[in-house]
Design goal:
alpha+beta; Trna Endonuclease, Chain: A, domain 1; four-stranded mixed beta sheet; two-stranded antiparallel ribbon; 39% helix
Length: 151
């Protein structure tokens, strides 16, 4: 007689486009010798035994999704978005503040763009790649300021 499970398995959800892209970017950068750290922003509510609630404060709102530690002491931040998704207002503010302090911060929508960011911080294709990434960032920023973005 076959065993019948007492609980039904829930069907697995398909990974979102952004989740799949994040995994592909992380895997690719790891193969290039980088360590990719996921950054959790906002506040998390945790419920413990007896229903006791507590709140854990994470990185500030607008902080990019990933911090990348590249070989030779290089570090940069990545905000991973689905193609066509704009930065929020808090993300734009965070980007501006970090860039004013000299940090490399990028929004990417593909593995190729993430690899371009790595090349930028390594300095191999600095001028050409920065122009490409800046054009994309400027476009996103302009759209946001015109009221297209939500944030």
């Amino acid at each position: 007689m076959p065993l019948i499970p007492t609980t039904r398995r829930k069907p697995r959800k398909r990974a979102s486009v952004e989740t799949a892209l994040s995994k592909a970017i992380t895997d690719t950068l790891t193969l290039k010798g980088c360590t990719v750290i996921r950054v959790q922003s906002g506040v998390l509510e945790l419920v413990g035994k007896g229903g006791k609630r507590r709140f854990v404060h994470c990185a500030p709102k607008g902080t990019p999704d990933r911090i990348v530690l590249a070989p030779n002491g290089l570090t940069f931040w990545l905000e991973i978005k689905k193609p066509g998704e704009p930065l929020s207002g808090s993300q734009i503010d965070w980007f501006e503040e970090a860039r004013a302090m000299g940090h490399d911060v990028f929004m990417v929508t593909s593995v190729a763009q993430a690899l371009t960011c790595l090349d930028i911080v390594r300095g191999r294709t600095r001028s050409a790649a920065r122009a490409v990434m800046k054009a994309g960032a400027d476009e996103a920023y302009a759209e946001f300021r015109e009221g297209v973005g939500n944030g």
